[in-house]
Amino acid sequence: QAQLVESGGGLVQAGDSLRLSCAASGRTFDAYAMGWFRQAPGKEREFVAGISRSGSRSYYDDSVRGRFTISRDNAANMGYLQMNSLKPEDTAVYYCAAKQVVSTSTVLIAQLSYPDWGQGTQVTVSS
């Protein structure tokens, strides 16, 4: 089981950038597919981006494709979400999630696929 801790959230203006980080415990982070999800007030948690355990494959929700970039540094046990051109509708609590997988190319999109979750970090984008 991976222990995950997000950081990097904050209050920014529309058009600004933020980079979220996800620190993972343990020595086998490179065995985990990873994803980012978000939950806005009054809404259900939704998928944002996912990345394979090797980092070779990634997938994005249409609402963030072209603005957000997911990446990872397995040597440092870290995952990242670079968020550019932020919009007020990106305001949410952002969560990282992980699941141990066999395939190096698997990208997981469904929340139910992920057993391990961080506590979340708040991102607020003002207009």
Number of H- or I-type helical stretches: 0
Order of helical and strand elements = EEEEEEEEEEE
Helicity level: under 10%
Shape: globular
Give the oligomer, counting copies of the same chain as homo and different chains as hetero. Answer: single chain
Kindly state the number of beta strands.
11
Straight-line N-to-C gap: 39 Å
Q: Overall pLDDT, averaged?
A: 96
Structural class: mainly beta
**Cα radius of gyration in angstroms:** 13 Å
Q: Tell me about the biggest sheet?
A: 7 strands, mixed
Give the low-pLDDT segments: none
Task: Please state roughly what percent of the residues sit in beta strands, choosing from under 5%, 5-15%, 15-25%, 25-35%, 35-45% or over 45%.
Answer: over 45%
List keywords for this structure.
48% strand, four-stranded antiparallel beta sheet, mainly beta, globular, 11 strands
How would you describe what is shown here?
Helix content is 0%, strand content 48%. The protein contains no helices and eleven strands. The strands form two sheets. Strands 2, 4, 5, 6, 9, 10 and 11 form a seven-stranded mixed beta sheet that branches. It has a four-stranded antiparallel beta sheet with strand order 1-3-8-7, with no helix packed on it.
Short description, anyone?
This protein is 0% helix and 48% strand. The chain has 127 residues and is mainly beta. The strands form 2 sheets. Strands 2, 4, 5, 6, 9, 10 and 11 form a 7-stranded mixed β-sheet that branches.
SSE diagram, text form:
Layout: E1 4-7, E2 10-13, E3 18-24, E4 32-39, E5 46-51, E6 58-60, E7 68-73, E8 78-83, E9 92-100, E10 116-117, E11 121-126
Parallel strand pairs: 2-11
Antiparallel strand pairs: 1-3, 3-8, 4-5, 4-9, 5-6, 7-8, 9-10, 9-11
